[in-house]
TrEMBL record:
It comes from Ruminococcus flavefaciens. This is Lipoprotein. It comes from the Bacteria. Residues 1-21 form the signal peptide. Keywords: Signal.
Length: 213
């Protein structure tokens, strides 16, 4: 009978320790991630950001944005940009994304704090390789006509210097907030001199956060 109180005490201590460890693994700042959506398509020639963000494929792996990095499997790795070198504020970050050691693209991160990078959430990604696509728009393969068939005419277009000739922009762009997070629901598609897609980027972040004026 004397052992029962000791066992109960030990159990209580273990529960307390576990709770502390769980608290340590929780983000320092509460962060809500937009709900995922089932992969779907919009009518041809229509830009629907929810459809686009639901259909991101990298090396045969499907995911959508925004996405907590902890949800990616063990085959995925990140190389974080140095915060000081790139002038990144606490709460934001950049990283190079790797799949089985192969570089796959650059991602922008929110909820990214020094020492707590595992709590980061991917909200933007840029891809440049032909084994990746965003909503069927595939670097090195898709043409201007392909892009316009999938998502229609751009809302704006930038003429730029070589190696790109112009960039199509779709969706909402609000600018950066106080943490340096790009606020928007948009994609950008860059073309080379032959009218072939060179890169595609997508951004999906919380539009309710205030941006800098």
């Amino acid at each position: 009978m004397k052992r029962l109180p000791l066992l109960l005490l030990a159990g209580a201590m273990l529960f307390s320790l576990t709770s502390c460890l769980e608290d340590e693994n929780k983000p320092d700042i509460p962060f809500e991630v937009a709900p995922t959506v089932e992969p779907h398509t919009a009518p041809a020639g229509t830009f629907d950001v929810d459809a686009v963000r639901s259909m991101i494929n990298i090396k045969g792996q499907h995911f959508d944005l925004p996405l907590p990095i902890v949800k990616l499997g063990k085959d995925w790795e990140f190389k974080y940009y140095d915060r000081k070198d790139y002038g990144l504020k606490e709460g934001s970050g950049y990283a190079t994304l790797y799949y089985n050691g192969v570089e796959m693209g650059t991602v922008s991160l929110e909820n990214c704090y020094t020492g707590r990078e595992k709590d980061s959430v991917m909200y933007s990604i840029a891809i440049k390789t032909s084994d990746c696509d965003i909503y069927g728009i595939t670097p090195q393969i898709s043409t201007i006509a392909d892009v316009e068939y999938l998502v229609g005419q751009p809302e704006s277009e930038d003429m730029v210097e070589k190696p790109y000739t112009h960039i199509y922009h779709y969706g909402i762009t609000l600018g950066e907030d106080a943490h340096g997070i790009a606020r928007g629901h948009n994609i950008a598609v860059s073309f080379d001199e032959q009218g072939i897609v060179d890169f595609v980027s997508i951004t999906y972040s919380d539009l309710t956060q205030q941006t800098q004026q």
